[in-house]
Amino acid sequence: MNKKVMRPQDYTLGAARDYKRLLYEDTEKPRDDLETRSDIALAELAATVHKNAPGLISSDFELVIGWLKTWKLHDRTFKRSSPGTKHVDFYNRLEELKNSGEQKDLQKRAYRKTLWSRLWAMLFGVSLAVTCILFFSSDVAWYWKTASLIVTVFLFIFSDILLENGIKLYKEQDRRYILASIREAESVVELSDAGLFGYLPGTSTSDKSYSEAEAVERMRKERDKLTDALYRDSGEYLSMDWRNH
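and the corresponding structure tokens:
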């Protein structure tokens, strides 16, 4: 790894604190003006990371991140902390999300669209039959045949547009539900139950070649990819202090 990936001045406390830097430009010692125990400990940790990170491999970084996450979460209070009921509680929460006002509203709107689509499709079928009769009749003027054909095409297009809009609303309903479910999850098991790893190749137990070890490994890789994406903030969108902009 190239040590220039991070410079000493890149280790900052972030927008949520007053201090901007942890280290001087050319030293691995904490700044002298750090006052709180947390800031000093963070500066020492940053110095250690800066010194040793070039010698680590990719899996080592994930291991260290796991250690830090364990420390971060050890005294955190979760919504579902009881081992005996948390699975049931999460399932009930998913049911609440599924039956929420927003979900029901989207479902009703989608149903109305598809219902109207079916009604217009029935009219299209009648119009198509009439048009066929008119076209095979020699006693009907050409402009009536043309008008009937235009009406038939219009009915088909209008029915198809309504059906497409209804399908889009159903897809929007599903998308909002799965995103709300993922945001509600507090653990890997709950994320899996919410569908985060759904349809990931090699993780379905219905596959003939299913292997639990390989499935877990695929899920680990997917987790690492997702966490990498969350921390790849090239524009510092989440790190920037938008209150001062």
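(Above: one complete record from the training split.) The chain has two domains: 3-76, 86-196.
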